[in-house]
Specification:
The chain is of the alpha/beta class and about 450 residues long. Helices cover about 25% and strands about 30% of the residues. The chain has 9 helices and 25 strands. The protein has helices at about 85-100, 155-170, 215-220, 275-290, 305-310, 325-335, 350-355, 375-385, 395-410; strands spanning about 5, 10, 15-20, 25-30, 35-45, 50-60, 110-115, 125-130, 135-140, 145-150, 180, 185, 185-195, 200-205, 225-230, 245-250, 255, 260-265, 295-300, 315-320, 340-345, 365, 390-395, 415-420, 430-435. Helix 3 (about 215-220) links the parallel strand 14 and strand 15 (about 225-230).
């Protein structure tokens, strides 16, 4: 067995420690913290890199803060929870800069970065499991096992309160969790959401039947949540929500951003950190206002939060979203907020984009895709439609950088970029950027447009 001693001076996107060996190879170390010196067992060695796993700490990270959270006070992978906050920010800023330099090939030295005001208690959604013994837990990818939790310091107070109440009821009725190795058990998954208005939603995914009458009645009578749904999923090792059954309370929960109200149904997406996402929306609005587009193509629009927030600065908004429930929420939300200039396309963005033939001298596209970023045909179509301004909100700076490079090939230049600490205490980061090109009387344009 080969071991190495190494100082961790960076982390990669999967939160592995990164350092350089004496021979100059780059080393990726599982379970290592930013700043510590570790002794690690080599698992794989190639010409230019090494993969290893930490065996012991030789010297502690100088960035450790003195907090006393135990694993049972965390509900998932918060890889930076014990690292000094300013160091977290520096790490994330550098991650964005490095991705843009290395992958997009754009030379930038510094970027704006928005820190979070609340570094704990910021998350409005959690997905928990129930261990086969009936204990609330999360599934750790690192150790491949259920880690029991008491509460989670990152979650809103409302969600932690639901966790406490639910724990007592699960104990009272002796409800077992799901054991994926034997494919036995009752509760597979527990999803709890909250909003800044204090509303809460609970979704329980069952594997099997059980006499739920008392359990449901207790949840309802003690009003532990405002909205309660269940779902049954009997397929082996599949934890997804299938058909939902509404048990009691409101069907949707309400969030407020500025003076606008948004209803959220159980399957619809909402950003997990309200405070930081609201700042992102406001900044994006400022950026877009300065361009004064007449039409905004809002791709990956969820419940149309951005379309609604932007509706007063454009003549028309086209909102594209794959999830039908989210589009239905969006339509209701547009009505309540008097946003009457939005059209919806309920299709995958990569398909919807092919049907878009609207042409205007001043159309802007706003993207907010999931981690895998944009399909290439979407980028091709932007150039073809003569859309010269792109605002891209990204939760993964490496796919963002890849897409910036693809946009560069069509003449778009990176004009502005800013990072946001949306996922505090994790290695993830949100980025907003503006890509523009001078209006080319369109050399890429091959067809006719209306
Ligand atoms: N802009 C919204 C949602 C962003 S999250 C907000 O700020 O709240 C990304 C959204 O993309 C989710 O709503 C998800 O359902 C949707 N989505 C995922 N894949 C998609 C695809 N291929 N085409 C269109 N929408 C997609």
């Amino acid at each position: 067995m080969k071991t190495i001693e190494i100082e961790i001076n960076d982390l990669d996107e999967n939160a592995r420690g990164v350092g350089r060996t004496d021979e100059g190879k780059i080393a990726f170390i599982e379970n290592a913290k930013l700043g510590e010196v570790v002794l690690a067992k080599v698992l794989k060695e190639k010409k230019s890199f090494i993969e290893a796993i930490k065996m012991e700490t030789i010297s502690q990270s100088p960035f450790l803060i003195d907090n006393s959270f135990k694993e049972s006070n965390l509900c998932g992978a918060y890889e930076l929870y014990d690292i000094d906050y300013d160091k977290q920010v520096e790490f994330k800023k550098n991650m964005i800069i490095n991705h843009i330099k290395r992958i997009a090939n754009v030379d930038i030295n510094n970027i704006d970065f928005e820190k979070a005001k609340n570094i704990y208690g910021y998350r409005n959604k959690v997905e928990l499991k129930l261990s086969p013994e009936g204990k609330l837990s999360y599934f750790s990818r690192n150790s491949n096992q259920n880690i029991e939790i008491e509460k989670c310091i990152m979650l809103s107070d409302e969600i932690n309160k639901v966790i406490d109440d639910l724990r007592l009821l699960i104990e009272k009725y002796h409800i077992p969790g799901y054991d994926s190795s034997s494919d036995r058990g009752v509760i597979k998954n527990i999803i709890i959401r909250s909003t800044s208005l204090g509303e809460t939603m609970l979704i329980i995914v069952f594997k099997d039947d059980f006499d739920f009458t008392g359990f449901y009645n207790d949840i309802e009578n003690s009003k532990i949540v405002d909205s309660f749904y269940v779902s049954k999923n009997i397929t082996r090792r599949n934890f997804k929500i299938k058909d939902l059954v509404h048990i009691y309370g409101t069907k949707k929960i309400k969030e407020k951003l500025g003076n606008q109200i948004f209803f959220i149904s159980p399957k619809a997406f909402m950003q997990v950190n309200r405070e930081v996402s609201y700042k992102i929306y406001q900044d994006a609005k400022k950026l877009i206002s300065s361009i004064k587009p007449d039409i905004i193509l809002d791709m990956y629009s969820g419940i149309s939060t951005t379309s609604i927030i932007l509706s007063d600065i454009a003549k028309k908004i086209i909102s594209v979203e794959i999830n039908e429930d989210a589009v239905n929420d969006a339509k209701e939300n547009a009505k309540i907020n008097n946003a009457n200039n939005i059209e919806w396309i309920n299709k995958p963005a990569e398909i919807a984009v092919e049907d878009i033939n609207t042409h205007s001298n001043n159309m802007l596209a706003l993207f907010d895709p999931p981690r895998k970023g944009l399909e290439e045909n979407i980028i091709d179509k932007m150039a073809l439609l003569d859309i010269n301004n792109i605002v891209y909100i990204s939760c993964n700076s490496s796919t963002l950088a890849r897409d910036i490079k693809r946009f560069n090939n069509y003449g778009y230049k990176l004009k502005y970029i800013k990072g946001y600490d949306q996922f505090v205490n994790t290695v993830h980061v949100e980025t907003v950027c503006l890509l523009s090109r001078d209006r080319v009387k369109n050399k890429y344009f091959r067809g006719s447009v209306q």
